[in-house]
Specification:
Helix 7 (133-140) links the parallel strand 3 and strand 4 (145-148). Helix 1 (6-13) crosses helix 2 (17-24), helix 5 packs parallel to helix 12 (296-311) and helix 10 packs across helix 11. It contains twelve helices and twelve strands. By secondary structure, it is an alpha/beta fold. The chain starts with 5 loop residues before the first helix and ends in an 8-residue tail after the last strand. It has three domains: 1-48, 434 Repressor (Amino-terminal Domain) (Orthogonal Bundle), CATH 1.10.260; 53-160 and 296-327, Response regulator (Rossmann fold, 3-Layer(aba) Sandwich), CATH 3.40.50; 164-295 and 330-337, Response regulator (Rossmann fold). The strands form two sheets. It has a six-stranded parallel sheet, sandwiched between helices. GO terms for molecular function: DNA binding.
Length: 340
């Protein structure tokens, strides 16, 4: 099959080549109807950008680097899908590394990406990352960087995040309205921005309903099943076990569910559960898991658009107007948190 070009699309749709080019790049200068028309035609006729030709023309690698904590996490898998879709349509390759929640691995990943001369970087920080000097140095040298999900306020660049505070507040409030009073929040690394925001949302909901904050019910835990089991055993060994659980990820929720079932603790009668990020199989669990859904695909798409806009931005003495884009989450209520 012969590949079509931008000129072919322009001729077929009676548009200029520059309009087609900007529409394929997702430019905001093009109205949505024209953009939709161009993209649908391009997809129908199997249009494929030529990254090699573009890189020779622009003296760029036409590739972007992505560093995530874990590809095996469904949330980050969806983010990567969003990134890849935008990058592909705009003629870029995506090079993906995972830090495995390690600061050291994050540094090594960054070295590999810079040696490959990527045009820009998208990164979600590892659970161990406290200092972001490695990113600041790279950014000051002119590397376009966009942070997503797990971010740092110490770098002045675009950031794309979920409304973690509101998500945790809504989930905690739901548990309170279901009659729960000893609600434990099981969260990840205390260094992460998402952890701080979700803990604050949890505390704000308790304060709203006059429930004292018990620091022993805020638990920081890794994703290792043994660590989850140890923490759960501690929570249920006392005289006043929790009657509600809010986890910051569905992966933590799965570990908690396994322990509760082994101890024959009924859900939601004895304890209610809410997870975060919405595993695709959450509704298939027994009981189906109530969860806070984050717009992971949209986060990837928005992050990629922002980064590519920075990469393709014409040189100027005026610095970019960096912003933080907050995407809203939604609580999906299922059987795990509602008494029959």
């Amino acid at each position: 099959m012969e590949l079509i070009t931008i000129k072919d699309i322009a001729k077929a749709l009676n548009l200029s080549t520059s309009t087609v080019s900007r529409a394929l790049r997702g430019s905001y200068e093009i109205n949505p109807e024209t953009k939709k028309l161009v993209i649908e035609y391009a997809e129908k006729h199997n249009y494929r950008p030529n990254p090699i030709a573009l890189s020779l023309k622009e003296n760029k690698s036409r590739s972007i680097g992505v560093i995530v904590p874990e590809i095996d996490n469904p949330f980050f898998s969806q983010v990567i899908n969003g990134i890849d879709a935008i990058a592909y349509n705009r003629g870029y390759h995506v090079v993906i590394f995972q830090s495995h929640e390690s600061y050291k691995r994050e540094l090594i990943n960054l070295e590999h990406l810079t040696s490959r001369r990527v045009d820009g970087l998208l990164i979600s920080l590892s659970g161990e990352t406290q200092s972001v000097e490695h990113l600041q140095e790279l950014h000051q040298k002119g590397m376009p960087i966009v942070l997503f999900d797990r971010v740092s306020e110490e770098i002045n660049t675009h950031k794309v995040v979920s409304d973690n505070f509101e998500g945790a507040f809504t989930a905690t409030e739901h548990l309170i309205r279901e009659g729960r009073r000893r609600i434990v929040q099981i969260t990840a690394s205390p260094f992460l921005s998402i952890t701080k925001e979700r803990v604050n949302g949890y505390i704000a909901a308790l304060n709203k309903y006059g429930i004292p904050v018990d620091e022993s019910l805020i638990r920081y835990c890794g994703y290792d099943l043994a660590a989850i089991e140890k923490m759960m055993e501690e929570l249920f060994s006392g005289d006043t076990p929790p009657d509600g659980i809010l986890t910051v990820s569905d992966r933590l929720a799965l570990g908690c569910l396994a322990v509760l079932k082994r101890r024959k603790i009924s859900i939601p009668e004895q304890i209610a559960m809410v997870g975060f990020t919405n595993l695709k199989a959450a509704y298939l669990l027994e009981p189906a898991l109530t969860t806070v859904v984050q717009p992971s695909l949209e986060m990837g798409q928005r992050s990629a658009e922002l980064l590519l806009d920075l990469i393709e931005r014409k040189p100027s003495s005026i610095p970019p107007n960096y912003q933080t884009f907050k995407l809203y989450s939604e609580l999906i209520v299922r059987e795990s948190s509602v008494r029959h």
